[in-house]
Amino acid sequence: MANVKRSPWLLHYDGSSCNGCDIEVLACMTPVYDAERLGVENTGDPMQADILLITGGINAQAEPVVKQIYDQMPRPKVVVAVGICACTGGVFKDAYNIKGGADTVVPVDIYVPGCAARPQSIIDGIIQARELFQKRSEEHDAMVKAGLTYEQYKKMKDEEEAKKVAAAKAEEDRREEENNG
């Protein structure tokens, strides 16, 4: 694991779960698993949070709350869906009041499946989130240093990606022509 410049803050939100995953998330914070040794700290304030950990499916009541929490989080931010309900809607996905998994409301970066997700899997997801947060922090620092807004930076990255895809396609077409001709 690479060293982070600062400890990412983690905010846990329960969409509408049976609380099985919530208990496992709490277990991660006990001395047995000690998730804080990874350099993450808990917060209850979305404006301080860097990593959003969502458990449970998203119902009609939770949808605006999750959106609001996500929007209040500063960039860079990482979203982790913990448990099959947060990943896909789980066994309740066909229920009248369940919208689906967390990705129906906010972009999810890391999925930790399981019913309930095991503490070891949750900690692995937190490690992945921490590494992704570090990478995004470095990109964010470069963006700020260059004086770009997030939208400008994203557009620039999308254009670079489009150029790479176009170049790869052109090379593939050229090779195909050589093989056929």
Automatic annotation (TrEMBL):
Enzyme class: oxidoreductase
A Pfam family that the UniProt record links to this protein: Oxidored_q6
Taxonomy, superkingdom: Bacteria
Gene3D superfamilies found in the cross-reference section: 3.40.50.12280
UniProt EC number: 1.6.5.11
Keywords tagged on the record: 4Fe-4S, Coiled coil, Iron, Iron-sulfur, Metal-binding, Oxidoreductase
Cofactor(s) needed for function: [4Fe-4S] cluster
InterPro entries named among the record's database cross-references: Complex_I_20kDa-like, NADH_UbQ_OxRdtase-like_20kDa
Keyword flag rRNA-binding: no
Domain NADH:ubiquinone oxidoreductase-like 20kDa subunit: from-to ranges: 18-128
UniProt-recorded Gene Ontology molecular function terms: 4 iron, 4 sulfur cluster binding; metal ion binding; oxidoreductase activity
Coiled-coil regions listed in the entry: 153-180
Family according to the record: Belongs to the complex I 20 kDa subunit family.
NCBIfam families, per database record: PRK06411.1 (NF005012)
The protein, known as: NADH-quinone oxidoreductase subunit NuoB
Organism: Candidatus Weimeria bifida
